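Weekly modeling sync, notes
Attendees: S.R. (lead), two postdocs, one rotation student

Agenda item 3: backlog of single-chain predictions. S.R. asked that every request posted to the team notebook include the full sequence so nobody has to chase files. The rotation student volunteered to paste the first one in as an example of the format we agreed on. Action items at the bottom.

Example entry:
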Amino acid sequence: MYTCKEFFIQCFCIKNKIDFLILDSYILCR
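Predicted structure, as returned to the notebook:
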């Protein structure tokens, strides 16, 4: 499961205690 939080135009995704910074890719955060 991914935990996505929208922050302005950035989406922070957390998986397996690993922080991923995905820019302009909301779909990848799902």
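Discussion: group reviewed the output briefly. The mean pLDDT is 50.
Action items: rotation student to repeat for the remaining queue; S.R. to check formatting next week.
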